[in-house]
């Protein structure tokens, strides 16, 4: 679990979450991503999808819609009944694809 990994490294899950939220408030979503990725490392469930949802929101904020779509999808996979915001985001980002990249390459 992410909190176990973080705590074994001398970090407290709740403190990391507070720090990430402060970074987001300060307009530093890219730095918050680093914290959320650290928290998610080794946590297969992404804390029941919560970390995937937070990562999706951060990536969407910085304009990386492909990464946002991926992380929202992971959040829904882990906890579809609870991650309704992620499911809504997936619908909103449904048009995000790689067609322009693939079509341009061939």
From TrEMBL:
What is the name of the protein in this document?
Tetratricopeptide (TPR) repeat protein
The species is Allorhizobium taibaishanense
């Amino acid at each position: 679990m992410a909190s176990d990994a973080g705590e074994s490294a001398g970090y407290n899950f709740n403190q990391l979450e507070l720090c990430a939220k402060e970074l987001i408030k300060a307009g530093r979503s890219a730095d918050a991503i680093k914290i959320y990725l650290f928290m998610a490392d080794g946590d297969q469930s992404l804390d029941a999808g919560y970390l995937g949802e937070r990562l999706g929101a951060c990536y969407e904020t910085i304009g990386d819609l492909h990464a946002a779509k991926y992380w929202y999808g992971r959040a829904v996979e882990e906890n579809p009944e609870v991650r309704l915001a992620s499911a809504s985001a997936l619908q909103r980002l449904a048009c995000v694809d790689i067609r322009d990249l693939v079509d341009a390459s061939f």
